[in-house]
Amino acid sequence: MTLVFSGNEYKYEIEGIMKLFIPATRFKTVFSDTVEEDKDFVFISVKEHDEQLLLSITADHLGKREVREQLVLKADDFDAELLLSKLLYRAMSEITGIKPKWGVMTGVRPVKRVNRYIDAGLEYQQIKELFKREYYCSEEKLDIAYRTAQVQRKIMGTVKEDSFSLYVNIPFCPTRCSYCSFISQTIDSGKKLIPDYIKLLSRELEYTAEISQRLGLKLDTIYFGGGTPTSLEPSQLESIMQTIEKSFDLSTLREYTIEAGRADTITMEKLETIKRNGCTRISVNPQTLNDKVLEAIGRRHTSEQFYKAFSLARELGFDCINTDIIAGLPTDTLDSFERTIEGLIALEPENITVHTLSIKRAADLNYAENKGEVLKNSSADMVDYASLRLTESGYQPYYLYRQKNMLDNLENIGWSKSGMESLYNIFIMEEIQTILAVGAGASSKLVDLKGKRLDRIFNYKHPLEYIKHFDIMLEKKKEIADFYAKEK
Ligand code: SF4
Predict the structure, then answer these.
(1) Which end of the chain is flanked by fewer CB atoms within 10 Å, N or C?
(2) Dihedral angle of Cα 283, 285, 289, 292, to the nearest 10 degrees
(3) The domain that contains 87 carries what CATH number?
(4) Whose CA is nearest to atom 6 of ligand 1?
(5) Quick one: pLDDT at residue 69?
(6) pLDDT of residue 358
(7) Is residue 268 domain-resident?
(8) For atom 5 of ligand 1, which residue has the closest CA?
């Protein structure tokens, strides 16, 4: 498929819309006023026309051709990218018969948008109209975004301006899952790096604590992610958590999460260690309760191991447990997914996060090569089933986000029993609190709500780079103070 741009360069946005309709396609990009191809192309044109601009799309695909045009006044305030996206959406819907439920919302955070409209005083009906008119978003998706916003708003009101969250990245896993797109090393290949990594991570934690204290910031939540933090030995976890306890003032802390993640890393000793050191919330993630699917995705643990890890966590007194699952895993079926949902509901975890498979380039599960297998699944039905049954079982959606390349252009939704929502997940998604992040691959997000400013500081991605260039990276952390200085 060739995309020909004339008078504009909205490549990123246009490709995003095209992927809603033909996800596993590679696009050739051409900048030209003419089209050489006679089929399988889209011509995206912006042309001056006196006081007006003519925006037009000609889409040729599957032997059908559709043309959509719109004239706008040059003087008007309009978003050409969005208008072209809408023209393209209409043309491609006509050709393929597909109507993606989130409409043209590709780079937009739907819940953030809903929150903005509610802040502006709009009612549900008005927001629904706007979502439909501006983004071609379905009522079903608007409804879930709206419900999510309602739950979030109670929590967002509790965020103090001088508060921050701390994110700690542990980029190691026991083995690599086939769908993984994170930079994570297997424990075996990263073994030699781990002692140095922990030493430097501790230095970064101490330095971050110093900065936050100097700025008068109060620690609100802590989140250990990765990777799989529980890939580390109990003594290593103890050492990192002790560094946190000694360096930061924890008197204002409201939540302390550790993604235990994979059941094959969870032992009584590790759980006791993290509980003793203040962790209040953990994730134990089955992804699916179907052993055959677990095997197909290279997860290397069984559902029985998950059940054991879950009950161990309960026995040790963890009263807020999250379980992650994924809709659309290769070889999974709707029936088997439904059994996973029912199995989890029976366990009554406080949080259940339903992801949709997102296949990125970094994953071993190559998108294009596996498209036949991966795309022929019922991920949309799976997500619908999860929403229905979780709602019936008393869970509420409390955070929602979308990524590129998600099957069927779906979403990830965190569900929670009332009052058990993870604060950190809301803060990071809605960008309403500064997150100071440490470790390889971590990125700090600096938020100034009053000044409406947002800045990011990226750490080196790979553990080896992190170790090698540690001092340069630490130097970059001075930007945190610069950011807050501008605020004053
Ligand atoms: S456990 Fe998570 S981070 Fe680790 S390999 Fe699997 S998907 Fe990637």
Answers:
(1) C
(2) -170
(3) 3.30.160
(4) 177
(5) 96
(6) 81
(7) yes
(8) 176
Percent of the chain predicted with pLDDT > 70: 95
Q: Residue 264: which pLDDT band, with cuts at 50, 70 and 90?
A: very high
Indicate which atom in ligand 1 lies nearest the CA of residue 227: 3
Task: Look at the chain and report how many structural domains it folds into.
Answer: 3
Of the candidates 375, 374, 426, which has an alpha carbon nearest to the alpha carbon of residue 398? 426
| DSSP secondary structure letters along 257-270 | EEEEE-GGG--HHH
Give 42 Cα–ligand 1 centroid separation in angstroms.
37
Domain interval for residue 77: 2-96
| Cα 329-331-335 angle, rounded to 5 deg | 85
Whose CA is closest to atom 7 on ligand 1? 180
Quick one: which atom of ligand 1 is closest to the CA of 175? Answer: 5
Domain assignment present for residue 482? The answer is: no
Ligand 1 pocket mutation, candidates 175, 179, 184, 359, criterion most atoms within 8 A of CB: 184
> If DSSP codes are grouped into helix, strand and coil, which group holds residue 115?
helix
Does the pLDDT of residue 164 top 80, yes or no?
yes
Write the pLDDT tens digit of every residue in 381-404. 999 999 999 999 999 999 999 887
The CATH code of the domain that includes 421 is 3.30.750.200
Can you give the pLDDT at residue 360? 63
**CA-285 nearest atom, ligand 1:** 1
What pLDDT does 51 receive? 87
* Cβ atoms of 240 and 229 closer than 8 Å: no
Residue 221 is assigned to a structural domain of this protein:
yes
The yes-or-no verdict on residue 300 having pLDDT over 90 is no
Residue 171 sits in the same domain as residue 314: yes
Residue of 305, 434, 411, 293 lying closest to 353 (CA atoms): 411
